Amino acid sequence: MQPTSQGVTTPMITSTAFRYPDEDGQVVYPRYFNVSTQQAVACKIAQLEHGSHGLVLGSGMGAITAILLGLLERGDHAVFHSGIYGGARSFATGRLASYGIEHSLARGTQLASFQECISPNTKLIFFESPTNPLLHVLDIQQIATFARERSILTVLDNTFATPINQNPLDLGIDIVVHSGTKYLNGHSDVNCGAVVTDQACMNRILSCAIDLGATLDVRGCYLLERGLKTLALRIERQNHNAATLAEWLSRHPRVRQVNYPGLTNHPAHTLAANQMTGFGGMLSFELDTDEQTAKLMLAKLRIATQAVSLGGVETLVCLPKETSHAKISAAERHREGISDTLVRVSVGIEDIADLQSDFGHALA
Ligand SMILES: *Cc1c(COP(=O)(O)O)cnc(C)c1O
Predict the structure, then answer these.
(1) Ligand 1 near 193 CB (within 6 A)
(2) What is the pTM of this model?
(3) Quick one: which atom of ligand 1 is closest to the CA of 309?
(4) How far is the CA of 2 from the centre of ligand 1 (A)?
(5) What whole-number distance in Å separates Cα of residue 14 and Cα of residue 222?
(6) 105, 151, 321, 333: which has the highest count of C-beta atoms within 10 A?
(7) Cβ atoms within 10 Å of 350's Cβ, excluding its own
(8) pLDDT in tens, 134-186
(9) Which of 210, 178, 118, 151 lies closest to 311 in space, CA to CA?
(10) Atom of ligand 1 nearest to the CA of 132
């Protein structure tokens, strides 16, 4: 219950000008991320991620850039996993050098590929698990322990798993980041991001975020907080729908391979079962056809929509070649194992029988 209004929803405080100093002696301003509407939702996300300090921003990339520029300085080195979100990878490979920050790309899913990249000035490791779009699973605790022994900070993008299925801070990660645009909001109608970490890291990230200015407007905060109220319910359903669809697809004669950490034949199924409490709503699969036929199949879907983005209540499908990995060269894409006929599915909350018949019809 909100003390100011006695309402069950947080008041949307639309003012950008506030009398100062407030009761705590602070100057309140939206770009300082300290309007109570912003803080209420940041606090909820921190609790969901089992962290002490939360911050919501205007996009996932706003959050990622504030973390990297807030924690890294000229002369530092950072390691990025090659399977991270394309925007984060492009910021790392294309922009960090101009700030005097070095980087390496760790390829492969094992700790060894990170170990190989470490140098004496390495300050940060950034990765995702499960990865997009191949759903590779990395050993979060092992990487976190390795980094902590060397005083290297770890950042995990937990967008795909959500805090319902995976809590990286409990596994030793220092900073969790989300594209809140995806599952946290869940309704494909807000662009936002979130960071959860401890006080020391948050101070550095917040001061950078204030300079960068990726504020989330209170109307966005309201929609994000509203989406959070059904997060657990949505994820429960999406876990179930994705697992059922993955099983079904893996028995379909036109499907060569299904990538889903919940399948017992996933190479890291046991690891996923240890570090996740649910396997998530994202899957991808390889069709036993050429690219033209794959495109035709997607066009035939009537419930699932061919669209970019993910994590909403509606099922979305895409060819990563044309969307998330469109800017990466064909050679690099193939090196990563992303073929031209790989289909990614963000499974929604629809009736699973309807979804299966939709895919059945399109595959036929
Ligand atoms: C979408 C996405 C991002 C970027 O988030 P925006 O809200 O679009 O800025 C970062 N990481 C992952 C895993 C994503 O899927």
Answers:
(1) yes
(2) 0.97
(3) 1
(4) 31
(5) 11
(6) 321
(7) 16
(8) 999 999 999 999 999 999 999 999 999 999 999 999 999 999 999 999 999 99
(9) 178
(10) 13
